[in-house]
């Protein structure tokens, strides 16, 4: 049986059967629980400051064990929002938040400019709750700070593969971005414009504080036998970030996957564990992605959240059982 989330709102109750429960706060957010644990909250409308780039995002995200695996609005980067779709450089505009990188600017090159836009929720085309998954499709308008509509985005998100025996679950995130500006759009990153090892652009995760640190931070693995911070700027089919939680003895594995049919697969990865934990399969690490008027590009990713430390062998076995 499939229920609509709109039906849940009339009684302010959760929809779902068995351990899966979904509650839709109309005009605000979607909450997903499994076996009494709030696994995900998708905030699609909020009143955050313009400098932080208002946009839809996931936070909190938790493992089936209840461990928190995202950070939101940290003091070092208030515009980092759990798990989100971002673009730091779009034809001189900023759909990421914070300062914009400009070569030659003081310090590390970031300047506060009146160019921070908004990813504005337009509506849901579908919101469905099944026995073992939650899915929704969403339309989003990318609006510049000056009020110009530059991008139509369509997202399809599925929360699925809830598996207590494997202590894991997944988010599939597909996006199609269309240029409606009327002239070309150029998607870039600080690395495109000269800052080394700063090629962030696109699907972006900010991890909890305890996952970061030179000596106590998380472990990074990737396909092809890659490991450690040197994965930054390299291509790989998948990347895993494994962190230890402060409370209790649990670790969590964050496995980031990409559709092999993505035009840029395998992606170049932006990843850090010092001074903070972040992962991003970049859409424009070294080179700009150029969209002509009316053109679109699509990307599809999966994030699997697992309790415990998964090694490369276990990751490959999981991917074989759950092809993307």
From TrEMBL:
What's the name of the protein?
Answer: Oxidoreductase
- Pfam families from the UniProt entry: DUF6807
Name the InterPro entries on file. DUF6807
Write down the species. Answer: Gryllotalpicola protaetiae
């Amino acid at each position: 049986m499939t229920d609509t989330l709109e039906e849940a709102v009339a009684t302010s109750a959760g929809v779902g059967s068995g351990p899966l429960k979904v509650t839709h706060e109309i005009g605000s957010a979607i909450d997903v629980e499994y076996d009494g644990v709030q696994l995900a909250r998708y905030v699609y409308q909020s009143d955050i400051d313009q400098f932080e780039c208002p946009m839809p995002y996931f936070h909190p995200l938790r493992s089936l064990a209840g461990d928190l695996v995202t950070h939101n609005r940290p003091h070092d980067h208030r515009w980092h929002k759990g798990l989100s779709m971002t673009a730091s450089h779009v034809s001189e505009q900023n759909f990421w938040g914070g300062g914009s990188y400009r070569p030659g600017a003081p310090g590390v090159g970031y300047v506060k400019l009146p160019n921070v836009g908004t990813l504005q929720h337009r509506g849901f085309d579908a919101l469905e709750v099944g026995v073992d998954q939650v899915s929704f499709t969403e339309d989003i308008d990318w609006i510049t700070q000056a009020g110009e509509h530059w991008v139509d985005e369509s997202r399809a998100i599925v929360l699925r593969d809830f598996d207590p025996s494997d202590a894991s679950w997944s988010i599939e995130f597909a996006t199609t971005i269309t240029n409606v500006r009327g002239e070309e759009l150029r998607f870039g990153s600080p690395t495109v414009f000269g800052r080394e090892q700063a090629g962030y652009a696109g699907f972006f995760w900010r991890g909890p504080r305890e996952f970061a640190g030179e000596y106590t931070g998380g472990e990074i693995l990737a396909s092809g036998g890659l490991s450690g911070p040197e994965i930054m700027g390299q291509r790989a089919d998948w990347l895993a970030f494994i962190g230890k939680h402060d409370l209790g003895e649990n670790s969590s594995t964050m496995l980031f996957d990409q559709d092999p049919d993505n035009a840029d697969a395998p992606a170049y990865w932006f990843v850090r564990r010092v001074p903070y934990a972040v992962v991003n399969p970049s859409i424009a690490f070294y080179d700009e992605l150029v969209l002509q008027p009316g053109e679109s590009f699509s990307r599809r990713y999966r994030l699997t959240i697992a309790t415990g430390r998964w090694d490369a062998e276990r990751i490959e076995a999981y991917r074989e059982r759950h092809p993307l």
